[in-house]
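Final report, Chapter 2: Outcomes

The project's central promise was a pipeline that accepts a single protein chain and returns its three-dimensional structure in a standardized token representation, suitable for archiving and comparison. That pipeline is now operational. To close this chapter, we reproduce one record exactly as it appears in the project archive, with the input sequence first and the structure output second.
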Amino acid sequence: MTTTTPDLRNPAQLLAALPYLIGFRPAKSVVLLGHQYPGDSPGLVLRGDLPRREHRACQARAMSRRFAAGGHVGVTLVIVGGRRRPEKPPPHAGFVADLARELEEVGLPVLHALWTPTIKEGAPWACYRIEDCAGALPDPRATIVAAAATESGTVAFDSREELEALLAPRSPEALARRADHLSRLTSPPWPEATRVDDAASVVSAAFVRQRRDEGPPTDEEAVLLANALKLPDIRDLCLAMAVPPATARAREAEHLWLTLVRELPPPHRAEPAALLGFTAYLRGDGAFAGMALDNALEAAPDHVLASLLRQVLDSGTPPEVIRGLAAAAAGPLVGFGLEPADFDVGQAA
């Protein structure tokens, strides 16, 4: 979720930082945190639900394979959930052993294996391998990662469900009206000679309305935006706005794509959902990127960009590897006539 490096050598600080690393407070979860050379640099962060006993081996294998191509040197393994019995090792030790074995198969050692029942101040934590490695968690809001996230405007949600709710339609009735209108269009609503310029003006106007906090788009505006995002030239400009990641301009773009995911019906919402996934992935938020890409593929299962990005995400490819996609898409254009200075936080539109 945030690109700030947690202290991978301090188990309590690392556990407390997890909500800011994955975007929400994990519960009943397994989290794998990849280490990249020189060992204290974080790589892929992967979360999954704690499986039933009969599914442990399968899930351990699937999660471990995601780290095979990511240039990692080791993995920290975290279990969140379960109750520890007095004088007994932390729960889910069998699953931890399965994960360690599968990670070993792809050439990665488990550098640390940690457990906590929940991520909150005062919760107990313990290590699986060292008996006297234990303690109580600090306030998650007091970590360095939390401070950096707060400064950048990043929010850690209390649950995955809260994060997923960001993608829910604002008004099903509005979606139905727009779906009907879009279904009756047989071609983009602009002359071919000026189509790209006209579509770029539509997207530029949407940014201006967003900066003025004018609320959701009207039906007419939503239909025009749906048509604009289908044009390859416009899509390329939208991809280019994701770099540099986590800048004011990239955040403005991500906000607009999120708005359009909630305002456009399927299959048209696949376009902003794919852009949202790309932008979130580049700034290091794999959890939200995955949700956005799943949303895109639910709306349009054959969406090429969303399918490719989902494969990249599933392979554990570091975000910087695909950053060139945005740079190549930009060419000599900045994007809709809006210079980076136009996106300074607090500047009036």
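Archive annotation: The longest strand covers residues 41-49.
This record, like all others produced under the grant, will remain available to the consortium after the project formally closes.
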